[in-house]
Write a structure and sequence with these properties.
Blueprint lengths: L2 E7 L2 E7 L13 E2 L10 E4 L4 E2 L2 E2 L2 E9 L23 E4 L3 E4 L7 E8 L13 E4 L8 E8 L14 E4 L24 H11 L8 H4 L14 H12 L54 H8 L19 E9 L3 E4 L2 E4 L4 E10 L13 E5 L19 E2 L8 H10 L22 E2 L16 E5 L6 E5 L13 E10 L5 E5 L9 E3 L10 E3 L1 E5 L8 E4 L8 E9 L32 E4 L3 E4 L9 E5 L1 E2 L13 E4 L9 E8 L9 E4 L21 H11 L8 H4 L14 H11 L15
Parallel strand pairs: 10-11, 14-26, 16-27, 32-34
Antiparallel strand pairs: 1-2, 3-4, 4-11, 5-6, 7-8, 7-12, 8-10, 9-10, 12-13, 14-17, 15-16, 17-23, 18-22, 18-25, 19-23, 20-23, 21-22, 24-27, 28-34, 29-30, 29-35, 30-33, 31-32, 35-36
Length: 755
């Protein structure tokens, strides 16, 4: 028996046929998107058009297919891969009974939400209107298909289902975009200070915050009726810091837990009405645990901020408007600082840079106030190929291994030169068991929000683009008093073979580096100022420093072109002219220059000293007349090349070639130092008075094999072809003394190729 009537969808009427079980039915109306679609972290939102038959509303169940679960694009940072939920893809869950929940934990306004379950729940969904669905299976970076099926239809027959509505969730931690003056824009793919502000606002029950379905993201099972807890802020901060989604995700259906005991997903068997008391969420990651007597807020602060030494800048760097600057502060080796540039007299040192924010209100009329900022480092400035002039040595975030506990903390403080506060070993995901290479000290008197009660300062260290952020209480902000405010610190290791000027910029994207006012609006016209690290090149007398990065893969040979040989500037004193090796210079070389290039041989390990008082080895190589192809150059790291052709006051070009002798990129220029000049501070050639007694003393210390002596590659001066197995001898001291007296380089230099 069947009957025919009409059903109403919007303003149209369509026929609806009620048939016995097992008889083909009309396809139900397809779910439609919410009126203003917005992706969320832990909810999907839609509505079901209603239907009636013989004047009676038709009951439907709503099926949610798990199409793609937690597949972030781009992928998570290497430290923190996304959990794998692919075993649940293709499975289905069903929407449970909807209920009304308070938006602000008050009588009104309310929103309508339902929780996923394992078995169908049938009702008249047309009367529900737009609603939100959550559950352990609704997780960030996922795709779902939503379909309706009529009560009595065969749930195993795909033809009985409506057309699917495809819905997706936003990236983990991305709960909003920028503040547009009246509301928060939808998620924009970036997890930054804006998302942390949203979580703070919602925690404070601030009407300006987005709705609970947009803001809630804490817990294995999200509870729609609960105001986002402080832990929600921690989840957003963790996502900003690069941590992966922390919850176990889907549970198998049907539940194997017998009611009334609930499983991790808040379910039990047999499954009836939605159970209000949900399973407890798993704990947040261990570092969030509060210490004895510590508040939850203090625990969050402690685990996402770190302490740095006190260096206070006093003068802005020539700007007249809102400015975020990366400013040199100090170095562990000899250096000079002038504004945005720190000059290092040698590599092998560690540099401290600071984020500084200032002049957000140049008129100082209390508008705008600074409510938050974010500054993101552009790591491309670390690369030697981007230095001026290019070279093969890259800067890197400081690498300081440590152990957990107070001993590790103390080591980090000592290695990074921190004299107050605490710094925690291994707090961040990359690298494990290391001191953090960037810190924020929120108890400094010049911290950007030192006057705030919130003291929120966070760092993302999980990817090369380190990001620093500071946040004041939403709706507040601090006035501009004309001073420079501190925003964080970055420690960079400068390798021994670094040379030239490295420019470290801030990423200019409005989602990476910005200032917000107290109402979370972007402050316009922010100037971004880079830091410059200039390194006097390491210029040994008889060695060429080499640094082959990991990017130089595959079989290749390293060619050394002799550009200028023994060309001291200023010239040697009268009566001590330099030897003339110009016949080996490439520009004047015969045979198309083939006789004026050499090829690096495979490096070997050599002792710094054969005595027991000075340990250590270095990799050294010589030159040959024919190419030497290897695929493992990068495994040697920094190494040195010495041969008869490597003479003082000379310039060489180093270039890589593949096994077809095709160039693999631009050549690097490498120079040797003035005869006898072995130690910093080196002098520019046009004003050189080197060497002096400091150089002589340095060679004597190496002769004595003192632990603090300079490397052999800088102290060894003789003979024609230095023997890298030999210790520094009196002949090296004598050579340095002769150079100090103004005598010329005495050795015979290059030999022809082929020999």
């Amino acid at each position: 028996m069947c009957c025919e009537s009409t059903k109403r969808i919007g303003f149209s009427m369509i026929a609806w046929v009620i048939l016995p079980v097992g008889v083909s039915r009309a396809v139900p109306p397809a779910p439609i998107d919410e009126p203003v679609p917005v992706r969320k972290n832990r909810y999907v939102s839609f509505q079901i058009p209603g239907a009636v038959a013989a004047g009676v509303p038709v009951d439907f169940a709503i099926r949610v297919k798990l199409v793609s679960l937690h597949n972030p694009s781009p992928a998570n940072d290497p430290c923190c891969p996304a959990p794998d939920f692919s075993a649940f893809e293709g499975q289905v869950r069903w929407v449970g009974a909807p209920a009304d929940y308070s938006e602000f934990n008050a009588a009104s306004p309310t929103f309508r939400a339902a929780i996923l379950r394992c078995s169908p729940h049938y009702q008249d969904w047309g009367a529900v209107g737009p609603f939100h669905v959550t559950g352990p299976e609704i997780i960030p970076d996922s795709v779902y298909e939503v379909q309706a099926i009529e009560f009595g239809a065969d749930t195993g027959d795909e033809l009985q289902y409506s057309s699917p509505l495809t819905l997706a969730t936003s990236r983990h931690g991305d709960i909003g975009g920028t503040w547009n003056g009246s509301s928060w824009d939808p998620p924009d793919g970036a997890i930054n200070a804006d998302d942390i502000i949203i979580a703070l606002q919602k925690f404070q029950n601030n009407p300006a915050a987005p709705t609970k379905p947009r803001s809630q993201n804490n817990g294995q099972v999200v509870e729609p009726g609960v105001l986002p807890a402080f832990a929600t802020i921690g989840i957003i901060v963790d996502a900003f810091s690069g941590f992966a989604y922390p919850y176990p995700g889907p549970c198998a259906c049907p539940s194997t837990t017998t009611c009334p005991t609930l499983n991790l997903c808040g379910r039990c068997n047999p499954e009836g009405a939605v159970i209000a008391t949900l399973a407890p969420s798993p704990p947040d990651r261990t570092p969030e645990t509060a210490l004895s007597g510590e508040s939850e807020g203090d625990a969050l602060n402690r685990n996402h901020q770190h302490i740095l030494r006190r260096h206070y800048a006093t003068q802005p760097r020539g700007t007249t408007g809102p400015t975020i600057a990366l400013t040199p502060i100090s170095a562990t080796g000899p250096h000079q600082i002038a504004g945005d540039e720190i000059v290092l007299y040698e590599g092998g040192t560690r540099v401290t840079l600071e984020i500084q924010v200032y002049q957000w209100d140049p008129d100082m009329d209390d508008s705008p106030r600074l409510g938050s900022f974010q500054a993101t480092i552009d790591p491309s400035g670390y690369l030697g190929v981007n230095a001026e002039p290019p070279n093969g040595a890259d800067l890197a975030p400081a690498v300081v291994p440590c152990a957990s506990g107070s001993a590790g903390h103390n080591l980090c403080e000592a290695e990074l030169g921190i004299s107050d506060g605490e710094i925690f070993c291994g707090d961040f995901p990359v690298p494990a068991n290391h001191c953090p290479p960037a810190v924020v000290e929120t108890d400094r008197s010049d911290w950007a929000f030192a006057a705030s009660s919130l003291l929120f300062g966070f760092i993302r260290l999980s990817r090369p683009e380190f990001a620093f952020t500071g946040i004041d209480t939403p709706g507040s902000g601090i006035p501009d008093d004309g001073s420079i405010r501190y925003g964080g610190s970055l420690f960079l290791d400068v390798p021994p073979l670094a040379s030239g000027t490295y420019t470290i910029n801030l990423l200019a994207s409005s989602s990476d580096t910005f200032m917000n006012d107290g109402n979370a609006l972007r402050i316009p016209g922010v100037t971004l100022l880079p830091a410059r690290i200039t390194v006097y090149p390491l210029r040994p007398n008889r060695f060429l420093p080499m640094s082959i990065g990991p990017a130089a893969g595959g079989s290749m040979a390293i060619r050394v072109k002799m550009v200028t040989l023994q060309d001291p500037n200023p010239p040697n004193p009268p009566g001590s002219p330099p030897q003339d090796f110009s016949g080996f210079e490439f520009a004047t070389c015969t045979n198309d220059g083939a006789g004026c290039v050499r090829w690096v041989t495979g490096p070997f390990s050599f002792p710094e000293s054969t005595t027991t008082s000075e340990a250590g080895t270095f990799f050294g190589a010589t030159l040959s007349c024919t190419p030497v192809f290897r695929s493992d150059w990068a495994t040697f790291g920094d190494f040195y090349v010495s041969a008869r052709e490597i003479v003082p006051s000379s310039v060489y070009e180093v270039e890589y070639f593949d096994d077809g002798l095709l160039s693999l990129g631009p050549a690097f220029t490498v120079a040797t130092g003035r005869w006898g000049d072995v130690i910093a501070p080196y002098k520019p050639p046009d004003s050189s008075t080197q060497p002096d007694f400091v150089d002589i003393s340095a060679v004597v210390d190496k002769f004595k094999s003192l632990p603090t002596a300079i490397p052999k590659a800088r102290a060894q001066l003789q003979p024609d072809a230095p023997d890298m197995n030999a210790d520094i001898s009196f002949l090296d001291i004598s050579g340095c003394v002769d150079a100090f007296k103004g005598l010329a380089f005495p050795y015979s230099g290059p030999l022809s190729c082929p020999p």
